[in-house]
Amino acid sequence: MVNGPPVRGAAFFEFGDPDVLRIVELPRRHPGAGEVAISVQAAPVNPTDLLMRSGAQAVLMRDLAPPYVPGVEFSGEVAELGEGVDTLSVGTPVMGVVDARRPEGGAYSEWIVVPAESVSVIPSRADWSRYAAVPLNGLTAILALETLALPSGSSLLVTGAAGALGGYCVQLACRSGLHV
User: Fold this and answer.
1) Cis, peptide link before residue 5, omega less than 30° from 0
2) What are the residues facing 111 on neighbouring strands?
3) Model confidence over 131-153: pLDDT tens digits?
4) Residues of the chain whose pLDDT is less than 70?
5) What pLDDT, on the 0 to 100 scale, is given for residue 164?
């Protein structure tokens, strides 16, 4: 449901270089059943956001109307709880993911509403920018290791282990008992 004062966000109305981004007023949504509203503190720029803004993913956005609000990961505080959400509290620091290719857009906004299961609790004195950059690479690493389904004691070679995704793969694989 939409009501309350508008919020600011970074959005674009046409595809292009970074200069197409504008600060705009967006409607403030309140969470429905199973959702939480997040007061966003940080939202990184990642390749998915760049592809969205440049138009390389325009085919995935053909059913959306501008303004387009990028941002697929974020950190912030729970600001409101929707009906049935009892695993979080208002004020809880979280990080999470959001589908920016939805009508209300992504995380480049002061305020977003997402399903409660799209967020994870982070430490109360967290560095917002560091935690905002974890979800997409972390989930990708988890999904890659789950897809491989290697038994404990197996060997895994990770190329690009110095990068964010590779670094997560190394840490998670070691924790799972793999020889990396």
Assistant:
1) no
2) 39
3) 999 998 999 999 999 999 999 99
4) 1-2
5) 87
pLDDT at 150: 95
Q: How many angstroms separate the CA atoms of 5 and 7, rounded?
A: 7
Rounded distance between C-alpha atoms, residue 43 and residue 45, angstroms: 7
- Cα dihedral value 11, 57, 34, 78, nearest 10: -40
Indicate left, alpha or beta for 31 from its phi (over 0: left) and psi (-120 to 50: alpha): beta
Two tokens at 100?
């920016």
Helices 164-175, 135-148: axis angle to 10 degrees equals 50
Q: Who contacts 149 (Cβ-Cβ below 8 Å, separation ≥6)?
A: none
Q: What is the per-residue pLDDT for 1?
A: 62
Query: How many residues would you count in the chain?
Result: 180
* Contact (CB, 8 A) for 96 and 135: yes
Report the predicted TM-score, pTM, of the whole model to 2 decimal places: 0.86
Tokens of 161: 């282990």
